[in-house]
Amino acid sequence: MNNRTNNGLLWAAIGLGAVAAVSLLMNRKEKYSFRGKVVLITGGSRGLGLVMARLLAKGGAKLAICARDIDELERARLELADYGGEVLAIPCDVTYHSQVSQMVNDIRNHYGHLDVLINNAGVIQVGPMEAMTLQEYEEAMKTHFWAPLYTMLSVIPHMREKGEGRIVNISSVGGKVSLPHLVPYSASKFALVGLSEGMHAELKKDGIVVTTVCPGLTRTGSPRNVIVKGQHEKEYAWFDVVDSLPTNSMSAENTAAQILQACKRGDAELITTLSGKFISAFHGLFPGSTADLFALINRILPEAGETGSTGRKKGFESQSSAAPSILTVLSDKAAEKNNEMGS
């Protein structure tokens, strides 16, 4: 190795060390507690949102949760109220700006202020691109990009007035690496990552910390409620099995705890699961190789089918002998626990 290469590596190491030191100094913060804080969780009636709400309620937070399904929302409210804290449950479709604005006004009128926003509401469409229509792409973008933008624009002025605030945007490892048979989902989660990272950079000076969260596979029980297209039973089976295996996924409780700790610390980003961290890092270094790898994986996933059907079914409508099965036990138990079973 010649001197020029040695010098280059030395300066690179010095540069990285300097960046790390500056980052450490900038991120040194006082302890943050959720006790007494008003926290809004979108999509807080089931799955990961409900699990985070449980932890926050136990920690003494004042909760506001929203969702579209009124019955599901009421079940979640009754459960969370058992922890002894305040819970405000508001029916809201966060893809509509007017409903979001009204919801935030209702929360401020009820509690007087709002300290933490967790953008968690999500939708997953599973199937080959041939089976996807503009509806799926528009639906994903409305839920994962426009809805978080609406909520952030609604709370930022109030947080600026206070001189502080926390915002958590739940994206996905699928927002770092585009996944086959999840293209609308991945594309919209990529958009959320860009939005969230930009907001972090611009709002920190105002005392508002934005954390971008990219969970790996998480056992929330959500496969029952995904939208399935193409060969419905086969698509649901592979997704449900992959989501459930402990070698690939993390429990919702562990994920929720990590997210809340990242919010407390004011981290810019959190990626969960070892596989999620690995594939994100690998993609950063070798984006072409990652794309080729997923092209190979795509070859073993179900094809669109002879008719190229674009019909939509929910996960629970696409069950077969393969799912639920012994391979999906953990996901099935999570669905029962986390209000994912439906009315």
Report on the architecture of this protein.
The chain is an alpha/beta fold and 343 residues long. The chain has a single domain, classed as Rossmann fold, CATH 3.40.50.720. 51% of the residues lie in helices and 13% in strands. The strands form three sheets. A seven-stranded parallel beta sheet has the order 3-2-1-4-6-7-11, with helices on both faces. Strands 5-9-12 form a three-stranded mixed beta sheet. Strands 8-10 form a two-stranded parallel ribbon. β1, α2 and β2 (62-67) form a beta-alpha-beta unit. The radius of gyration is 21 Å and the shape is globular. It starts with a helix and ends in a 6-residue tail after the last helix.
Describe how the helices and strands are arranged.
Elements: H1 3-26, E1 38-42, H2 47-58, E2 62-67, H3 70-81, E3 87-91, H4 97-111, E4 116-119, E5 125-126, H5 134-162, E6 165-170, H6 183-203, E7 208-214, E8 218-219, E9 227-228, H7 232-244, E10 250-251, H8 252-265, E11 269-271, H9 274-285, H10 287-300, E12 313-314, H11 329-337
Parallel strand pairs: 1-2, 1-4, 2-3, 4-6, 5-9, 6-7, 7-11, 8-10
Antiparallel strand pairs: 9-12
